[in-house]
Amino acid sequence: MRRPVVLVAGLVLAAGAVAVLDRVTPLREAVSAVYGTAQSLVRVPGDLRPVEEENARLRAEVLALRQAVPGNGSDKSARTGVAAHVVGFGDDGRTVTIDAGGLPTDVTVVDRHGLFGRVTWSGPVTSTVTLLTDDATSFGVRMTGSREIGVVSGVVSGVPGRRLLRMRLLNAGAPLRAGDLVETLGSAGRRPWEPGVPVGRVLSVEETPGAPTRTALVEPLAGLTAPGLLTVITPAGGRP
C-alpha cells in the first residue's frame, strides 16, 4: 500500500529536478527519462490521454481554419496538436516543464485561451516551454480589430508573480484603447509563432504625445500561473 506514495514522491522530485537542471542538457535528458517512467507507473485506469490528444488535435485544426481566412497572408501547410501538461515551473518564472517529449523546438504552445509560449528544448519525454512573457522574447502582433501591427515583449508588472507584455504599434496614430484584442502576426515558416493566435487584451494605453509609436500594456489571455491542458502546435507528422 506504500508503493504509490513512493512513486508519487519520486515523480514530484523528478519533475522538480527537470526544472532546476533546465540548462544542463545531458542531465535534463536523464531526468526526463526517469520522470517519464515514473509517470507511466502512476497512471490510473480510465486514462484521459486519448481524449486530451483529440482536444489538442481539434485546437490545431481550429487554428488552421482561422489562418485559412482569405487575406490573412499565412501559408496553408498542415498542422497538428500534441497534448501536454505543466509538471514543473522554472525558478525565474520564465519557463515551465511539460510532460511531452520528442517535440520539434521553436513551435507554438497554446492553452484554451490563447498563446502560452514556445518549445525551447525537448527531451525523450519532457520538454521546456518558454513563456510568451519572457523579457528576452519579442514577437510581432496584430490588432484583431484595426489590423495595425506592432511588437510585444515581456515586462514585470510590479505585482508579484504577474507578468505583462509591452506593445509598441508602428503607427503612432493607430486607434488603441483598453480592452482591444491582440493576436500573433506569425513568423516566417510559422516557427516559432503561428499567425492568428490570440495573445492578450490591452490593459492600459501609454499616452506620449509626439512619440513615434503607440505603446500599451497587454495582459496575456493564457493561464500562465494556473495552466490547464496545453497544445503544442507541430507540423503535420508531429514529432521528429
Describe this structure in words.
The protein is of the alpha+beta class. The protein is 23% helix and 32% strand. The chain has 3 helices and 13 strands. Residues 1-25, 30-46 and 69-74 have low confidence and may be disordered.
**How would you classify the helix and strand content by structural class?**
alpha+beta
Counting DSSP E segments of at least 2 residues, the number of strands comes to: 13
What would you report as the Rg, rounded to the nearest angstrom? 19 Å
Helix content: 10-25%
Mean pLDDT: 79
Spatial shape: globular
Low-confidence stretches: 1-25, 30-46, 69-74
Largest sheet: 7 strands, antiparallel
Please indicate the percent range of residues in DSSP E strands (runs of 2 or more): 25-35%
The oligomeric state is: single chain
Q: Would you list the SSEs in sequence order as H and E?
A: HHHEEEEEEEEEEEEE
Note the total helix count: 3
Distance between the termini: 39 Å
The order of strands across the largest sheet is 1-13-4-5-6-3-2
Give the helix/strand layout.
Layout: H1 3-20, H2 25-42, H3 49-67, E1 79-84, E2 86-89, E3 95-98, E4 108-110, E5 115-122, E6 127-131, E7 138-143, E8 149-156, E9 163-169, E10 181-184, E11 198-206, E12 214-220, E13 230-235
List its salient traits.
240 residues, alpha+beta, seven-stranded antiparallel β-sheet, six-stranded antiparallel barrel, 3 helices, 32% strand, globular, disordered N terminus
In short:
The chain has 240 residues and is an alpha+beta fold. The protein has helices spanning 3-20, 25-42, 49-67, and strands at 79-84, 86-89, 95-98, 108-110, 115-122, 127-131, 138-143, 149-156, 163-169, 181-184, 198-206, 214-220, 230-235. Strand 11 (198-206) and strand 12 form a beta hairpin.
